[in-house]
Amino acid sequence: MSRKPRLTYCNGRGRMEPVRWLLAAAGVEFEENFLETREQYEKLIKDGVLMFQQVPLVEIDGMKMVQTRAILSYIAGKYNLYGKDLKERALIDMYVEGITDLMQMILTFPFSPPEAKEKNLDSIKERATNRYFPVFEKVLKQHGQEFLVGNKFSWADVQLIEAILAVEEKIPAVLLGFPQLQAFKIRMSNMPTIKKFLQPGSPRKPPPDEHYIETVLKIFKK
């Protein structure tokens, strides 16, 4: 029996993508089981595999874990990406929660109606440049270190580089005016495990396309 973590989700980014990012950044290989039909999803529910009848599902260390935040914090703790003490964990948690708020806007964007896309894109740009990215620009400038917390690579760094790249896909010039984040992006993208994850053929998923959107709606929308 394989000891690799097994990830069950649709074949796309969604709420599983930060899990893929964190495992990859930790240098952990994993397997994926892609949901393609509503029947597969309903069978997981019927079998009692999904505690709250929701995916992502990650099978790791003999557990069937659900709820993205719980999965991510477990992986971060297991692979020493969660700070050295409670104060560092609190900082990481705050940064991660903020990034997650921004990423929620990215997550829902492909599902917005055509007439709302321009407005939603403007909202993403406004939030990124006025609320979220200035926080991390200031943190990096004030402490002058390479990483966000404790001068050590952590879960917060992984979440931030994922968010930067996701926003840049939609707004290429979003980092103009954020020199610290520009340098951070270069550093993180050249870390060996992340550099590998950014290469073609890695488990990183492409931006959502029409097929992915149709699949998600078919499986989860009642």
From TrEMBL:
Residue ranges annotated for the GST N-terminal domain, each copy included: 3-83
GO terms, biological process: glutathione metabolic process
Transmembrane segments: none
Segments forming domain GST C-terminal: 85-209
E.C. number: 2.5.1.18
Keyword vocabulary terms for this entry: Transferase
CDD domains registered for this protein in UniProt: GST_C_Alpha
Recorded GO MF terms: glutathione transferase activity
Family: Belongs to the GST superfamily. Alpha family.
PANTHER family, A to Z: GLUTATHIONE S-TRANSFERASE (PTHR11571), GLUTATHIONE TRANSFERASE (PTHR11571:SF230)
UniProt-recorded name of the protein: glutathione transferase
